[in-house]
C-alpha cells in the first residue's frame, strides 16, 4: 500500500500530507487542553468596575430604590417580629392588626414600640382610665362624669383612642402620620398605670407622667419624631397643635364620648333615637361631660373690632422679667381679695390690675417714668397692656391664645364655684409652665380659691364687648354692682367701662 501511494504521489507529496495530518492532531490536543483548564480570573473593586461602565455614554447612574423591585415583592414584604403573649382578647386583636396595617411596613421602629406599649397595657391596664390625684386635670371633673369614665379600663381607653386615631387620619389620607400618632395614642395615659403612681404624684399631671414612662420604653428614644410625640401627649388636655397633637386630642375626645354614652346606657338611662339612627342620650349628658373634660371654648360669636394702634414698649419691656413680676401674685390672698389664681388644667388667670402693676414696675426700673406714673384712668394704659400681651403671644406657651381674641388682651370668663354664686370676670389666661409646676401651685392654693372648680369663656346676654385692646366693656358680675349715675358722670373722658372682674370672693 505504501509503495502504491509513493508511485501515485511521490515522496514530496507524501511527506506534505503526513505533515498536515500531524498538525491537525496537535491542534486538536491543544484545544482540548485549553478547554479543561480553568479560565483566568482576577478580583476588581466595584469602584473600578463602575468607572469602566461609566466611560460609555449608554450607562447612567441608577438609584438603588429604582432597582429594589427586581428582588423584593412589595406584597410579601413583612417585618419579622416575635409574637407577643397577651392575656386580653382586645389586645391580641390589636396586635394582629398592627401586623396587617400597610403603613407600618416602612416604619418598623414605630411598630415595635407600639407592640411593647400594647403588652404593657395588657399587663397593667386593668386599672381605671381616670385618676383622682390632687393637681391633675381629672381631679376637677364632676363626680358623675368621673364615676362613669372609671368604668372603662385604661387598656380599653388607650386602644379606643388608637382606633379613633387611625380612622381620623385615614379619612384625611394622612397615612404617613399614623405610625407616630399611634405611639402617642397608646402612651398618652401611661401615667395612670399602677407602676407609674410615684411619678404621677411627683409631677401632679398624668400627661407629664406618661411622657416619663414612654421615655423608658425600648426603642422610643431612637424614633425620629419622639419630641413631637411627647409634646402631643403633654398637651392632649390643653391646646393641642401639630400633625400629631390635634388628631390625638380629637381621638381622645371621641373615645371619651363613646365611653360616656356606653356607661350611661349600661346604667339604664333613658335613650332616644337620633335623626340618623344613632342613640342620643336625653339631655345631652354625655356631650356635657366631654365639654367639661376638655373645656370646649366655642360659644356665641363676638363682633370683630378694629385692631388698636400699636404702642412701642421695647425701651422697657422684657418678657422674662415681666413674668417674674407676675409670679408672686398667683394664688395669693390679701384678706379675701386676689389678683390671679391657678387651675388644675395648667392655666393661670390674671386680672388686669396684676398686668398693670407689673408693667408699671418694669417701666419704672427701666427709667420710663411716663408709663410708671401714668394715671389709673389713662386710656393709654390699655394700649400698654395690649402691647404687652401681644409681645407675650410671641413667646412659646405663655399666653393661652385660644381663649382670647387677637385684638384683645383678655377675655370674659365664668367662674363656677363649688359653693356660692358663679362669678363673671375679665382675665388674661396664661399657661402655667413659665411660672413653674402647676402641681405645686395647686398644692399650696388657698382653700378660698379652691372653691373655684371650673373656668369657662363667657358670652352672655348682658355682655358688651370692649374696644379692642381696652379689654373691659362687659357685663356686671354678681359681685360688682352697676355703676351709679355719679360714677358714670365721673368717668366721662375715659373708657366707658372697667373690668367686671371680681377681686374678692364672698362666701354664702
Architecture overview:
This protein has helices spanning 2-36, 46-54, 89-100, 108-124, 143-149, 154-171, 178-187, 197-203, 206-215, 226-234, 242-266, 285-294, 319-326, 352-365, 369-372, 380-393, 438-443, 447-450, 485-490, and strands spanning 271-273, 279-281, 333-334, 337-338, 340-343, 347-351, 411-417, 423-431, 452-457. The protein is elongated. It contains 19 helices and nine strands. The chain is α+β, with helices and mostly antiparallel strands. The strands form three sheets. A five-stranded antiparallel beta sheet has the order 5-6-8-7-9. 44% of the residues lie in helices and 8% in strands. It has three domains: 1-27, no CATH class; 84-271 and 279-294, Hypothetical protein af1432 (Orthogonal Bundle), CATH 1.10.3210; 319-490, no CATH class.
Can you lay out the helices and strands and say which pair or pack?
Elements: H1 2-36, H2 46-54, H3 89-100, H4 108-124, H5 143-149, H6 154-171, H7 178-187, H8 197-203, H9 206-215, H10 226-234, H11 242-266, E1 271-273, E2 279-281, H12 285-294, H13 319-326, E3 333-334, E4 337-338, E5 340-343, E6 347-351, H14 352-365, H15 369-372, H16 380-393, E7 411-417, E8 423-431, H17 438-443, H18 447-450, E9 452-457, H19 485-490
Antiparallel strand pairs: 1-2, 3-4, 5-6, 6-8, 7-8, 7-9
Amino acid at each position: 500500500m505504501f509503495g502504491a501511494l509513493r508511485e501515485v504521489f511521490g515522496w514530496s507529496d507524501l511527506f506534505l500530507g503526513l505533515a498536515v495530518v500531524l498538525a491537525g492532531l496537535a491542534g486538536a490536543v491543544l484545544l482540548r487542553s485549553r478547554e479543561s483548564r480553568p479560565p483566568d480570573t482576577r478580583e476588581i473593586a466595584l469602584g473600578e468596575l463602575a468607572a469602566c461602565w461609566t466611560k460609555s455614554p449608554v450607562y447612567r447612574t441608577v438609584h438603588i430604590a429604582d432597582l429594589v423591585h427586581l428582588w423584593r415583592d412589595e406584597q410579601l414584604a413583612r417585618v419579622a417580629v416575635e409574637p407577643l403573649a397577651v392575656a386580653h382578647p382586645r389586645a391580641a386583636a390589636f396586635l394582629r392588626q398592627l401586623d396587617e396595617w400597610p403603613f407600618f411596613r416602612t416604619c418598623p421602629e414605630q411598630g415595635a414600640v407600639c407592640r411593647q406599649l400594647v403588652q404593657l397595657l395588657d399587663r397593667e391596664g386593668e386599672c381605671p382610665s381616670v385618676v383622682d390625684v390632687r393637681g391633675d386635670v381629672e381631679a376637677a371633673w364632676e363626680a358623675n362624669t368621673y364615676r362613669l369614665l372609671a368604668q372603662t379600663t385604661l387598656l380599653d381607653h388607650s386602644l379606643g383612642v388608637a382606633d379613633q386615631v387611625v380612622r381620623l387620619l385615614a379619612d384625611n389620607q394622612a397615612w404617613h402620620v399614623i405610625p407616630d400618632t399611634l405611639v402617642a395614642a397608646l402612651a398618652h395615659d401611661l401615667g395612670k398605670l399602677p407602676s407609674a403612681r410615684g411619678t404621677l404624684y411627683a409631677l401632679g399631671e398624668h400627661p407629664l407622667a406618661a411622657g416619663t414612662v414612654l421615655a423608658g420604653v425600648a426603642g422610643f428614644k431612637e424614633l425620629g419624631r419622639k419630641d413631637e410625640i411627647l409634646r402631643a401627649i403633654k398637651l392632649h388636655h390643653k391646646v393641642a397643635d401639630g400633625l400629631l397633637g390635634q388628631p390625638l386630642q380629637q381621638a381622645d375626645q371621641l373615645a371619651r364620648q363613646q365611653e360616656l354614652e356606653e356607661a350611661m346606657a349600661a346604667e339604664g338611662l333613658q335613650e332616644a333615637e337620633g335623626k340618623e339612627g344613632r342613640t342620643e342620650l336625653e339631655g345631652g349628658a354625655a356631650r356635657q361631660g366631654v365639654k367639661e373634660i376638655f373645656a370646649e371654648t366655642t360659644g356665641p360669636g363676638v363682633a370683630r373690632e378694629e385692631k388698636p394702634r400699636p404702642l412701642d414698649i421695647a425701651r422697657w419691656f422684657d418678657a422674662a422679667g415681666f413674668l417674674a413680676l407676675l409670679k408672686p401674685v398667683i394664688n395669693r390672698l390679701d384678706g379675701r381679695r386676689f389678683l390671679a389664681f391657678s387651675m388644675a388644667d395648667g392655666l393661670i388667670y390674671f386680672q388686669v390690675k396684676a398686668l398693670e402693676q407689673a408693667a408699671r414696675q418694669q417701666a419704672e426700673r427701666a427709667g420710663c417714668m411716663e408709663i410708671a406714673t401714668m394715671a389709673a384712668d389713662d386710656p393709654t394704659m390699655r394700649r400698654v397692656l395690649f402691647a404687652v400681651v401681644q409681645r407675650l403671644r410671641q413667646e412659646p406657651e405663655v399666653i393661652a391664645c385660644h381663649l382670647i381674641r387677637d385684638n384683645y388682651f383678655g377675655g370674659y370668663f365664668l367662674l363656677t364655684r363649688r359653693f356660692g354664686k358663679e362669678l363673671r370676670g375679665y382675665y388674661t389666661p396664661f399657661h402655667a409652665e413659665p411660672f413653674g409646676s402647676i402641681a405645686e401651685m395647686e398644692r399650696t392654693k388657698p382653700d378660698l380659691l379652691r372653691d373655684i372648680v371650673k373656668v369657662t369663656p363667657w358670652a352672655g346676654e348682658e355682655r358688651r364687648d370692649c374696644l379692642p385692646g381696652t379689654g373691659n366693656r362687659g357685663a356686671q358680675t354678681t359681685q360688682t354692682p352697676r355703676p351709679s349715675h355719679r360714677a358714670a358722670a365721673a368717668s366721662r373722658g375715659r373708657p366707658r367701662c372697667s373690668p367686671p372682674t371680681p377681686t374678692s370672693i364672698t362666701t354664702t
